[in-house]
Amino acid sequence: MQSCLHLAAPGDTLLLIEDGTYNVLTLNALAEQMNVPLEGLHVCVLIDDLLARGLAAADLPDHITTVNHAGFVELACKHGQSVHWF
After folding, report:
1. φ, ψ for residue 68 (rounded to 5)?
2. pLDDT class of 32 with cuts at 50, 70, 90
3. Which domains does the chain have, with CATH numbers?
4. 49, 77 Cβ separation under 8 angstroms
5. Which letter, b or e, does each residue of 43-61 get, where b requires 16 or more Cβ atoms within 10 Å of its Cβ?
6. Rounded to an integer, what distance in angstroms lies between the CA atom of residue 45 and that of residue 56?
7. What residues pair up with 14 in beta bridges, in sequence order?
């Protein structure tokens, strides 16, 4: 997550999927610790993956958006380039 936040720029979209959804719990604190602003970064989480891990959409910070699988496809089509971390 740290390397991702170092490379992210305003206007980028960060989509958290699978076990990456756990990062919604610590993303703000990590960004603050790293002195990396989240302003201008569009953060999304795949809702099915979030729910499958026992996390609730209602508990997300206001700046994190949930997307379904159709939204995932829309994001992939909207952004010409993508970088993956595993």
Report:
1. -95, -170
2. very high
3. 2-78 (3.40.1260.10)
4. no
5. bbbbbbbbeeeebeeeebe
6. 11
7. 43
HEC per residue, 31-71: HHHHCCCCCCCEEEEEHHHHHHCCCCHHHCCCCEEEECHHH
> Phi and psi (nearest 5°) for 37?
-70, 140
CA dihedral (49, 29, 59, 72) positive or negative: negative
Higher pLDDT, 80 or 14: 14
| 46, two tokens | 């795949």
Asked whether the predicted pLDDT for residue 86 surpasses 80, the reply is no
